[in-house]
Design a protein that fits this description.
single chain, alpha+beta, 7-stranded mixed β-sheet, 5-stranded antiparallel β-sheet, 19 helices
């Protein structure tokens, strides 16, 4: 939900800065996900100055261009080449100086630079209205009244640009009371007043109305259960026209497109007060009678979007005197009864509809509108009259209309507030601390919750009907805590809970944890014989009395056994391999060595073949991701190094504290050929005993998830072919910035479009300030530092 800062301050007067308001709104449950800038004119005319054309002559090398000299104040004369047909000496004009950004209709910008145009120097641009975003006129440059515009002045000083800041609020579905600027202001006021901060908030009330004569329109509500409250107004002599600028800017700021004054007023009231309104062309209401009820099953109805819909007979419908449907109540208007430029009399509706019935109708027809979103959750039944009277006053002021007769109202039974008993002991129990009783009553008053009676150990209270989500004692306690402030509740010194204990001295537990992780990700565990044959007997452990020549040696690696498993499966049409094995390997060097490893082999596709996903082959990075998942459990600082190993065509060694933790890479073609495998295989082996020795023995630590978002920036670097990603990674890790949290490689390219012996690495960098949102200058500083490092150490070039 978007909330305009300027609009919000119409309801609550405070000296707080926008960022502070956003902080307080988040504290009370209206989480501000971001604050965006709204500019009435894109760029706010920055860099545009008032200039006077001193001379204007034909360009020597172009028939349609003119050479001008322009005085932009302070004795500065610019040479500007202009192609406008109406440019002439003596004119006062808006000038974009060098460095100014000019925005197009698509929002993209280009910078004004000093350049040569057909051989003549141009040091700026004389602007047309559309180039400044002031209109769509591109008939020529904008010519200003020299008596009103002073040469050298900033052009923006002559405009009320109505710039704004907009809160993006992640509103939870239960908070219907805050689905408007008035509702947010009311909630903010409750927080500020209960915390003794200065704020001026005036509760809105109905406007006094003057009507002319009587109206011959009638209202009939067929079922009060479907429509507990309905108010209608007939307004005559209305002129449908364009809305004033202030109203258009209010709507544009929150992402709405202005349509006409009548529709814009209903949208203004909707987002201002939270009460949906609907305007009908009164001249199209047959019998001058408005009925609220249902239509028969199978009735055809064309909505404003031009779609013909078939009613199921349960929708709340607004009908005319002949029972013709005009609107799905609380959801969507009809095409044949809407306001148009020819409309002179309107019927304005403000109502409270049954939330369940509205929801059923909206879901059945697949419609989700601003009105249905609010009606489904329950709007304030007591603001119905206030909203329509404000709208009528606005229509009279902007559309020249006049209320005809009295308001037509159906409200047979008042919707009462919710009655709740609040126990102080329950408040203390939930909060874990004792809050002063007067403070509780003060917060309730700020929330417009009335204390009806003080009882033993509690209060009888009346909760306003607009708080449809506050119906129980626990809901009231949550409201009290929300306004009081979660941060003010002291955390307990001792928190009793039972984390899963992992014995750091138990290697079996580590092996089981790794095995479960791999199994849950689709890997199959295999067990192979430790006895095998070898081609190279170097370092091999030979049995004194082997059973056969094929089982004469202890295995030196788990790879050969896994390749045999892969070959067996591939020949039986199971080409997608995800295997792992926990086993020992044996070597004879200065003494006999026995080491336990976890080995992983992947090949084929990384996901099963299906119609939804394209074929995706397993690769080195797929294997590396699983190795990283396993090693992350150890809490080690791991360094990557290139590895020369005859078993791999390309390989990587992972090292921690100068000890090898793992090796991984692409299996060499020679080994694949020996195993009779024709598809690529990728293999990793993790040294279990080394991991067990190095794994962190520190206590478990729980760290909060950062409150602020990470910022990602990418660099595409052109580097020498012999530079590895590991080299770039190490250089980047040396960067002193505390904001640099993560570095990764997401693209590698070598091709004919690059210079000889060059390749391109695309790297991403994640930055985070854990204390506040990162500013652009901080991000730029880190990125510039990284670029300088890459350029200095590797002669890297940035690719655009």
């Amino acid at each position: 939900m978007k909330i305009s800062n300027n609009w919000l301050r119409d309801f609550i007067k405070t000296d707080l800065k926008t960022e502070k308001i956003g902080e307080y709104l988040t504290d009370i449950g209206l989480e501000v996900e971001g604050i965006d800038k709204y500019e009435a004119v894109k760029g706010s005319l920055a860099g545009i100055v008032v200039g006077k054309i001193l001379t204007c002559e034909q360009h020597p090398n172009a028939d349609k261009l003119k050479k001008t000299t322009v005085d932009v104040g302070n004795g500065k004369i610019l040479n500007i080449v202009c192609g406008a047909p109406n440019v002439a000496a003596g004119q006062t004009v808006p000038v974009a100086v060098v460095g100014t950004l000019i925005y197009g209709k698509d929002g993209n910008s280009f910078e004004i630079k000093e350049a040569k145009i057909r051989g003549e120097v141009s040091q700026g641009m004389i602007c047309a209205e559309d180039e400044l975003g002031l209109s769509d006129d591109h008939g020529g440059i904008m010519i200003l009244d020299e008596t009103k515009y002073e040469v050298g002045k900033n052009f923006a000083e002559y405009f009320d640009l109505a710039n704004d800041e907009v809160f993006e609020i992640g509103l939870t579905p239960n908070r219907t009371d805050a689905m408007s600027h008035y509702g947010v202001a009311r909630d903010l006021n409750a927080f500020l007043t209960s915390n003794q901060m200065k704020a001026e908030f005036e509760k809105v009330s109905s406007k006094p109305l003057d009507s002319e004569g009587t109206t011959d329109y009638q209202l009939e509500v067929e079922d009060s259960a479907l429509c507990p409250r309905y108010i209608g107004a007939v307004i005559e002599n209305v002129k449908v026209a364009e809305s004033p600028e202030w109203l258009k800017h209010r709507l544009k700021a929150i992402g709405l497109s202005p349509i006409n004054n009548i529709v814009d007023i209903t949208n203004y009231v909707l987002h201002g007060f939270g009460q949906p309104l609907h305007a009908f062309d009164a001249g199209k209401i047959a019998g001058k009678k408005v009925k609220v009820g249902v239509n028969g099953t199978g009735t055809k109805f064309t909505t404003l979007d031009g779609v013909e819909r078939t009613l199921n007979g349960s929708e709340i419908m607004i009908k005319d005197g002949d029972n013709n449907p005009m609107c799905i109540a609380g959801v969507f208007g009809g095409q044949n009864s809407g306001v148009s430029e020819e409309t002179t009399t309107i019927f304005l509706e403000s109502a409270y509809f049954n939330p369940v019935a509205v929801r059923k109708g909206a879901k059945f027809h697949g419609l989700n509108t601003d009105a249905s979103f609010r009606f489904e959750r329950g709007v304030d039944p007591n603001i119905t009259r206030t909203a329509i009277t404000h709208a009528i006053k606005m229509i009279e002021e902007m559309g020249g209309g006049k209320l005809s007769g009295e308001l037509l109202e159906h409200y047979p039974e008042k919707i009462e507030n919710n009655y709740v008993i609040l126990r102080f002991s329950k408040v203390d129990q939930i909060l874990g601390t004792k809050m002063h009783r007067e403070k509780i009553k003060e917060i309730l008053k700020s929330l417009e919750i009335e204390v009806l009676n003080e009882i033993q150990n509690g209060l009888e209270i009346s909760v306003p009907a607009y708080r449809a989500d506050v119906t129980r004692e626990i809901d009231v306690i949550e409201e009290i805590l929300r306004i009081y402030g979660y941060n003010k509740i002291d955390s307990l010194q001792k928190i009793s809970f039972t984390p899963v204990k992992l014995s750091l001295d138990d290697q079996d537990a580590l092996e089981n944890s790794w095995a479960r992780t791999l199994q849950s990700n689709g890997f199959n565990e295999v067990m192979n014989n430790s006895l095998t044959s070898v081609k190279d007997e170097t370092d091999a452990v030979k049995l004194l009395n082997p059973l056969s020549g094929d089982l004469a040696f202890m295995r030196k690696s788990l790879l050969e056994g896994l390749l045999e498993n892969a070959d067996y499966n591939i020949k039986r049409k199971n080409q997608d391999i995800k295997f792992f094995e926990l086993g020992k390997i044996y070597h004879k060097k200065s003494k006999y060595e026995e080491r336990k490893q976890l080995a992983i082999l992947v090949s084929g596709r990384n996901t099963a073949e299906n119609w939804l996903q394209p074929k995706s082959a397993t690769d080195f990075y797929y294997l590396k991701s699983y190795v990283k998942i396993l090693l992350d459990k150890l809490n080690l600082n791991i360094e990557e190094k290139p590895l020369e190993d005859s078993r791999f065509s390309d390989a990587l060694e992972l090292v921690s504290k100068s000890r090898t933790v793992a090796r991984l890479g692409k299996v060499s073609p020679e080994l694949l050929k020996d195993a009779d495998i024709s598809q690529d295989c990728f293999y990793a082996e993790i040294e279990l005993e080394v991991c067990q020795e190095l794994r962190s023995k520190g206590n478990l630590k729980f760290v909060d998830i950062p409150k602020f978002n990470k910022i990602r920036r990418d660099l595409a670097l052109l580097i020498d072919i012999n530079v590895s990603y590991a080299d770039l990674y190490k250089a980047a890790k040396k960067n002193p910035s505390k904001y640099l949290k993560n570095i990764s490689l997401f693209d590698v390219y070598e091709g004919k479009n690059l210079p000889e012996n060059k390749k391109s690495y695309a790297m991403s960098f994640e930055l985070l300030n854990e204390e506040k949102t990162l500013e652009e200058k901080d991000i730029t500083e880190v990125m510039n530092s990284l670029i300088k490092t890459f350029q200095k150490e590797f002669s890297a070039e940035l690719r655009s």
